[in-house]
Design goal:
By secondary structure, the protein is an alpha+beta fold. The protein has a domain of 29 residues. Strands 1-2-3 form a three-stranded antiparallel β-sheet, with helices on one face.
């Protein structure tokens, strides 16, 4: 099982997302739910492409933390 950090950002027209560990793997959507679905599919497609090309799936190297400031 692979686990990758996905960053989701609000845009003027909806949402965009990317994974710092998967160069070039991005998705967009009108809603957060839509961009999550699209990104999941984009990652699946990306990983399948890597396998077909005989390229190793890169290890996850990024982490996240939410920090609260007063």
């Amino acid at each position: 099982m692979n686990k990758f950090l996905v960053i989701i950002e609000k845009t003027k027209t909806g949402f965009s997302s990317y994974s710092p560990d998967l160069d070039g793997c991005v998705a967009t959507g009108r809603t957060k739910k839509e961009v999550e679905k699209n990104m999941y599919e984009a990652i699946q497609f990306h990983l399948e492409g890597l396998k077909e090309e005989g390229i190793s799936i890169p290890p996850a190297r990024t982490e996240s933390e939410v920090m609260v400031f007063a």
